[in-house]
């Protein structure tokens, strides 16, 4: 496979240019317009071997000067760097040959498409959920008719997690060391293009298998490491509106036989009721009205075996005293007038902490240390990270270069405070936004704010390509909000959707619920007895998987994703994103369509046993029954990591 990479690099083409960018941000979504003032193709004129690789020479015939791409090889990894970096150039087009039947995956997180062949991917973190786009889509669906299988044009999407990394179906990865806006273009049959706005520096490495490629990518990008084992003991309930609500609903769940390992109360610091819904008051200390004496309550819940989780993000509510302190000390991101930059999120403005200011960075870490870990929290959602305005003024650095890095800096802060407190074995955090450094510093990801619907581009089905693309980018532990999050206009969560989502999340690394932004309009886990009974069973299924998930987590520390595409072990079905493998031995085929009690399942070349019926399937596509209460799940007959006791427990729960 090294020959393939060497061939691609030797046939590299290069174009240079100069241009300007124009960004306009609205609620975390960025309208981008570029103007290329000039561009010129370079002529490849030389190839020279060196001690550890080779050098390619490119000639700018107009300026009569040369550019050199230094390529060094270290244990099979090709490190490529353009030697020159003149100020007059800020556009670089790097073109490499590819195969007509080659497929591409990764680039961070993609929703409606897993296979990126034929697409141009924007590498620029942003708010994935654009309220204006959601509203237009809902109105269009109502007027024209909704087709849940029809996705929006790929170019219309932005992503919370954008990373200049892809993996090819020909078993190699390419990762670019770039922080500025970039595009990866896979639209041509025989050529892929990296459109960079800074000096090209990238790495390529191949493997005989996809797990080997993932392991090599992990050696380049890093890995967070082990998570607390209690995460695999059941379901994390989402309960808000105070200690009394937590007690009441938690006891109700426990009495119904739900295996609860944690309660996530995102409003631990207070609530804000807006036109968008029930939102968090971004003031990072326990709200004394909703959660009085929270430290002792957390101790009380822990005695029941239930952990408590909270919420934090890089913003501050401007009505509250913590913001006043931050503002007086100059800790906030500024606008060009020297004022605190007010960023609008949904319906209200907020200030953003400047993480390039060492004092502000240390102060924010101290808030997490004292007000969250210090009162006994076992985890939290570390939300946002995508909103850094490119026209702001920072304590240090260029926001255009730091925008993509911001979620990784946010991840690093959270990791540092967990490690400094010595609680890595007990405490974790989960994030939605990311960039290159997030692979090393984010404990795990969740797939963001899915709609509470069945749409391919943003609803339940989108969880699968989102999880798979993150996995191929190096993020090995991924889960989703069971039931989705975004409720807007007439879109609300149904009982069927919540149950199907819970079935899917039981067979994922983490099982966690969400009430949604408008809890009163959405069905919740305890809305009736059937829902409680259903959740109890799914929580027991997830807990039964613990020995298997711990084995997969050990592999995840080496870069191998827990959720994998079918081709990962079978070299087939390269564009299939309607099912996934949980590790090597389980094939999971969630019900993706409303009202269905069966679904077609594609089986790769092996012998697969239906856990529910014991029926065996070989390679091919079959229609499989999927009554409410279970989704089609199959184990590999020649399983290597799934022990017999786990299979027995799964059969016991699924067949009951």
Describe this structure in words.
With 656 residues, the protein is α+β, with helices and mostly antiparallel strands. It contains 16 helices and 36 strands. Strands 3-4-5-6-14-11-10-8 form an eight-stranded antiparallel beta sheet, sandwiched between helices. A seven-stranded parallel beta sheet has the order 15-16-19-23-24-25-26. Helix 7 crosses helix 9 and helix 13 packs antiparallel against helix 16 (644-655). The longest helix has 16 residues, at 529-544. It starts with a helix and ends with a helix. The mean pLDDT is 95.
Question: What keywords describe this structure?
Answer:
single chain; 656 residues; alpha+beta; eight-stranded antiparallel beta sheet; seven-stranded parallel beta sheet; 16 helices; 26% helix; globular
Determine Rg (CA atoms, Å): 25 Å
Strand order, sheet with most strands: 3-4-5-6-14-11-10-8
Helix amount: 25-40%
Number of H/I helices: 16
The average pLDDT is 95
Structural class by SSE content: alpha+beta
Terminal CA distance reads 49 Å
Quick recap:
The protein is of the alpha+beta class and 656 residues long.
């Amino acid at each position: 496979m090294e020959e393939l990479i060497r061939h691609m690099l030797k046939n590299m083409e290069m174009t240079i240019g100069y241009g300007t960018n124009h960004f306009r941000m609205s609620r975390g979504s960025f309208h981008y317009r570029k103007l290329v003032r000039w561009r010129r193709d370079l002529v490849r004129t030389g190839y020279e071997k060196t001690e550890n690789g080779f050098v390619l020479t490119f000639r700018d015939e107009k300026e009569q000067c040369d550019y050199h791409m230094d390529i060094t090889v270290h244990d099979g990894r090709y490190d490529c760097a353009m030697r020159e970096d003149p100020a007059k150039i800020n556009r670089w087009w790097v073109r490499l040959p590819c195969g007509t039947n080659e497929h591409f995956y990764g680039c961070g997180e993609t929703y409606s498409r897993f296979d990126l062949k034929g697409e141009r991917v924007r590498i620029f973190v942003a708010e994935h959920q654009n309220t204006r786009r959601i509203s237009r889509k809902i109105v269009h669906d109502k007027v024209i008719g909704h087709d849940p299988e029809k996705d929006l044009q790929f170019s219309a999407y932005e992503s919370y997690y954008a990373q200049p990394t892809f993996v090819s179906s020909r078993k190699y990865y390419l990762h670019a060391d770039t922080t500025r806006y970039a595009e990866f273009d896979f639209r041509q049959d025989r050529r892929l293009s990296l459109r960079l706005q800074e000096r090209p520096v990238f790495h390529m490495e191949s493997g005989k298998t996809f797990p080997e490629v993932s392991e090599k990518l992990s050696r380049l990008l890093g890995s967070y490491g082990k998570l607390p084992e209690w995460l695999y003991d059941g379901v994390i309930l989402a309960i808000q509106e105070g200690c009394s609500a937590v007690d009441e609903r938690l006891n109700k769940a426990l009495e119904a036989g739900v295996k609860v390992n944690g309660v996530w109360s995102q409003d631990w610091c207070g609530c804000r009721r807006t036109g968008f819904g029930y939102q968090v008051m971004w003031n990072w200390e326990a709200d004394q009205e909703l959660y009085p004496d929270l430290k002792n309550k957390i101790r009380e819940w822990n005695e029941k075996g239930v952990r408590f989780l909270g919420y934090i993000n890089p913003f501050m509510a401007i009505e509250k005293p913590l913001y006043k302190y931050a503002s007086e000390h100059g800790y906030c991101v500024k606008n060009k007038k020297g004022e605190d930059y007010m960023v609008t999120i949904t319906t209200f403005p907020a200030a953003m902490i400047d993480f390039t200011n060492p004092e502000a960075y240390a102060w924010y870490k101290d808030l997490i240390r004292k007000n969250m870990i210090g009162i006994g929290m076992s985890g939290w959602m570390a939300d946002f990270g995508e909103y850094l305005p490119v026209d702001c003024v920072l304590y240090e650095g260029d926001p255009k270069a730091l925008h993509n890095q911001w979620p990784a800096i946010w991840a690093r802060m959270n990791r540092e405070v967990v490690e400094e407190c010595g609680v890595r074995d007990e405490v974790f955090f989960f994030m939605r936004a990311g960039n290159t450094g997030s692979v090393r510093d984010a404990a795990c990801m969740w797939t963001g704010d899915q709609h509470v619907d069945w749409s391919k581009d943003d609803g339940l089905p989108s969880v699968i390509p989102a999880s798979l693309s993150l996995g191929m980018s190096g993020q090995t532990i991924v889960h989703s909000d069971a039931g989705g999050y975004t409720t807007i206009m007439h879109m609300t969560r149904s009982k069927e959707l919540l149950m199907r989502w819970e079935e899917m999340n039981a067979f994922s690394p983490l099982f966690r619920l969400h009430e949604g932004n408008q809890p009163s309009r959405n069905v919740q886990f305890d809305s009736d007895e059937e829902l409680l009974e259903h959740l109890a069973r799914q929580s027991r299924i997830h807990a039964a998987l613990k020995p298997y998930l711990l084995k997969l987590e050990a592999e995840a520390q080496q870069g191998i994703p827990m959720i994998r595409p079918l081709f990962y072990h079978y070299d087939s079905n390269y564009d299939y994103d309607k099912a996934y493998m949980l590790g090597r031995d389980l094939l999971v085929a969630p019900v993706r369509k409303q009202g269905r009690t069966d679904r077609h399942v594609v089986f790769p070349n092996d012998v697969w046993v239906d856990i529910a019926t014991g029926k065996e399937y070989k390679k091919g596509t079959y229609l499989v029954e999927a009554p409410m209460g279970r989704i089609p799940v199959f184990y590999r007959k020649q399983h290597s990591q799934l022990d017999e006791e786990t299979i027995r427990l799964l059969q016991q729960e699924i067949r009951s």
